[in-house]
Amino acid sequence: MRNRWLAWLSGVRFPSWLALLPGLLLALLWIWKSLLLWPFRLEQRVLVVGDGAEAWQGRLSCWERVLPWGRWRREGEVLPVLLGRNGVAWGSGLHPPQPGLQKEEGDGRTPAGRFRLGLVLGTAPALPQGAKWRLYHRKSPQDAWIENPELPQYNHLVTVPNGANLPDWFEAERLRIEDPVLEWMIFVEHNYPASRPGGGSAIFIHGRYGKNSATSGCLALGKKNLLALLRWLDPRGNPELVVLTEDDYRRLWRSWALPSPKRIGLPPSP
């Protein structure tokens, strides 16, 4: 029976286009991955939750889903993250104005709310291998990030042209490229691009100086975790950073379309 089947196959003449079928299937698979199941849409959220407004330590987790039917799925483990030494205060981002303490320049607080993630700054010629982010600037000795509210470039990157005289303010505002902890910096678009003078500036996700070293308002991760975050971020997912206290997360998660408090490990309200 088997020999008869093989003899029949050997006598069948298949259309020539069938020889192209494997290559066509591979091409369709590549297009499917490139367009990410278009017209479906990827969403990514970096969630940071702290115990309360005065907490300088929080928990960071990465979540993504594919709309319209996808469910939030956590990527990796929940990570410890260091916040501002004085806790958090409401920042200026994608969220509507919120009641309570508002972020101000020099208050030592991390902005709370929803924010786009923007330019990545680094000392290497390119982003780490495997990173998909498209906004990268290699830091140079001519770079400054303006934190002085009296300067017109407040909360923006300024690069002084080579050969030009450095402004009087430059030394106070320059990027510290010699600091290894600041090797990689992900800009959090708080109070940006329209920057209200005094509303807070230069908020980044960067490395940490120690396990218990609070920041002046940035978010600090261990280097291994920071590199993993850089490689996970996908511009197709329009990633947002969400920073909230536990109470505010319980209050806002539905209207902000976030994973439920239970799914991120929050205990029930007391």
Task: Give the helices and strands, then pairings.
Blueprint: H1 2-11, H2 21-34, E1 41-50, E2 57-67, E3 73-82, E4 88-90, E5 110-122, E6 136-138, E7 143-145, E8 157-159, H3 170-173, E9 184-188, E10 204-207, E11 219-221, H4 223-232, E12 240-245, H5 246-252
Parallel strand pairs: 1-12, 4-5, 5-6, 10-11
Antiparallel strand pairs: 1-2, 2-3, 5-9, 5-12, 7-8, 9-10
In short:
This protein has 270 residues and is α/β, with parallel strands linked by helices. 17% of the residues lie in helices and 27% in strands.
Describe this protein's structure.
The protein is of the alpha/beta class and 270 residues long. It has a domain at 44-138 and 181-252: L,D-transpeptidase catalytic domain-like (Beta Barrel), CATH 2.40.440. It has five helices and twelve strands. Strands 1, 2, 3, 4, 5, 6, 9, 10, 11 and 12 form a ten-stranded mixed β-sheet that branches. The radius of gyration is 24 Å and the shape is globular. The termini are far apart.
